[in-house]
Amino acid sequence: MSSLNVLLVTYVFPPAGGVGVFRAASFARYFPDEGIRLDVVTARNASAVGSDPTLLNEIPAEVRVHRTVTFDLPFGIKKGIKKLVTRTKPANAGAEGRCFEGEENLLKRILGDVLLPDPQVTWFPVLSHAARRIVRERNIGLVLITAPPFSSVLLVEKLRKEFPDLPIVVEFRDEWLSTAIDLVGFSRSARARRIARQIEASAVANATAVVAVTEAARCEIRSRYMGEPDDKFHLIPNGFDATRLPRSGSSLNPCTGGKIIVTHIGSIYASTEPTTLVNALRSLPQKTKSRFKFRFIGHIEEPRFRETLLQLSDTVELSGFLPQHQALAAMNETDYVLLVQHGRLNVAAKFYDYLGGGKPILATIHPEGPERRLLEELRAGWWADSRNVEGIRQLFLDAAARGNSFLTEFRPDAFKIAHYERKVLAKSYAELLHSVAHRVDEVNSKTGSYEFADLVRQP
Predict the structure, then answer these.
(1) CA distances from 423 to 22, 23, 58, 215 (A)
(2) What is each CA distance from 131 to 143, 258, 271, 433, in whole angstroms?
C-alpha cells in the first residue's frame, strides 16, 4: 500500500477535552500504521469543555499538528454569554416593555444572525488560509474535514475552487439539518436554517465522499441529495478504544446489601435533557428509590438541567468534567451505565465507551433510533422510550428487582462489540481514504485532465 498524505481538519484536538476530541485523536493514533502520513490543522485556543493533557501522550511523533488561532471565545465566557442572551423575563413583565416568556431577546437575535452557521465560524478565515498553505507545502493528497462545528465544512467549497482535483472527504459526526440544528444549534431562525441548508448542499456537492457515523444519519443525508451517486455516502461509526478502558479485577458490583450505582458519563445538554428521566425516578416508591445512587460525570450545559437533576436530592451526585481516563475508570465502580438520548438519528459517542467498558446499559432513548437497534443486536442492556415517564419508571423498577440476577442475564455479544474498537474502525477508514484517493488518480490517469464534476458522475 502506497503512502497517502492526509490533512485532517478538526476544531478540537488534544489537549482539548470533551467527546468531540476522541475520534480525531484515534485517527492520529492509528492512521500512521495504515499507510497514512497525517497532518492535523486545529484551533490552538478552541472552546472546549475542559482540558485532558494525557491524550497528547498517545499522538505519534510523526503526526504534524498545525495549531492556529481562533477568535472564538473561551468555553466559560461563551456559556456566560449564552446564559445572558437566552434569559427571559416573567410574562407579567410585558407591561414594562420587557420580553415575554419564551421570547428571544434582541442580543440573541443579533448574534444569531451574525454567527452563522455557528459561533466557531470566527475560525474559518484563519483555517482557510492555513489549510490551503498546508495542502501546497505538505504535498497533501486528501483532506478529511470532520464536523461539528458545521462551519468547518465551508472549507470544502474554498478548497475545491483552488484545488479542483483534490480528494476531499467531509464527515458529519452529527446529522445537521434534521436533528442537530434543533437540539444544539445556536440559532434556529429561518435565516439560520436557510444558510445551513446552503452550506451543507455546497459541501456535499463539492466533496469527493461524505461520511456519517450512523446508518440512519447516512440515509438521512443521502435522501437530501438524490442527484448524487449513492457510493458517495459512507458509514464509519464511532467506537471505543480498548487500551483506554481500565477494567476492574472483579465482575460487576453486586447490588444486594448496598446501593445500586448508576453512572452517566458525558455532557448534559438539549439532546440528553433529563426532565422526563427525573420525573420517572421521583415517581419510584421511596423504598426502591433509596436503593439507587445516580452519578453524573460531565459538563452540565444549562443551570435548569442542574436544577432538575438536583431534584433527586441525596440519590444524585454531580461530579462535573473529568479527564477521560478518570471518567472511564468510574465505570469500574458502577453497576449500570446510563444513556439518555432523545434524537432519532445519532448515537451518543459515550454509547461505545459503555460497550467497551463491559457494564450493562440502562437507556432512555428514541424508540426508532439507532441506539435501540444496537442495544438489542449487541445485547448490551435494557431501554425505555425517553419521552415515556411510565416506561422509564418500569425500567428502573426492573433494575431494582433484578438485583444480582443481572450477573447471569447480561450476556453481551463480545464478537460483534469488538467490531467497534477504534483500531478496527481506523483501519476501515484508512481503506476508504486510500480508495477515494486511488479513484481520483485513476480518473486523472485516464483523462489526462480532470474536472471534479466528472468524478462525481462516475458509476
Answers:
(1) 12, 11, 13, 20
(2) 9, 55, 32, 18
Structural domains of the chain, count = 2
The C-alpha cell 497525517 sits at 38
pLDDT digits over 251-282, tens only?
Answer: 445 444 478 999 999 889 888 999 999 999 99
Tell me the CATH number at 189. Answer: 3.40.50.2000
Q: What is the grid cell recorded at 429?
A: 477508514
Indicate the burial class of 79 (C-beta count within 10 angstroms; 0-12, 13-18, 19 or more). middle
Give the number of other CB atoms < 10 A from CB of residue 279.
14
The pTM is what?
Answer: 0.84
Amino acid identity of residue 41, one-letter, is V
The DSSP element (H or E) to which 4 belongs, if any, is strand 4-9
Rounded to whole angstroms, the Cα distance separating 140 from 64 reads 12
Helical residues (DSSP H) of 91-149, grouped into ranges: 106-114, 124-137
Helix (H, G, I), strand (E, B), or coil: what is residue 299? Answer: coil
For 127-155, the pLDDT digits (tens) are 999 999 999 999 999 999 999 999 999 99
Q: Which three cell numbers stand for residue 137?
A: 507545502
How many CA atoms, within 13 angstroms, populate the side-chain half-sphere of residue 374? Answer: 27
**Same domain for 276 and 221:** no
What distance separates the 2 farthest-apart alpha carbons in the chain? Answer: 76
Residue ranges making up the domain that contains 368 = 242-417
Cis preceding-peptide flag for 15 (omega within 30 of 0): yes
Query: What secondary structure letter does DSSP report for 429?
Result: H
Strand order in the sheet with 361-365: 316-320, 292-297, 260-265, 336-340, 361-365, 381-385
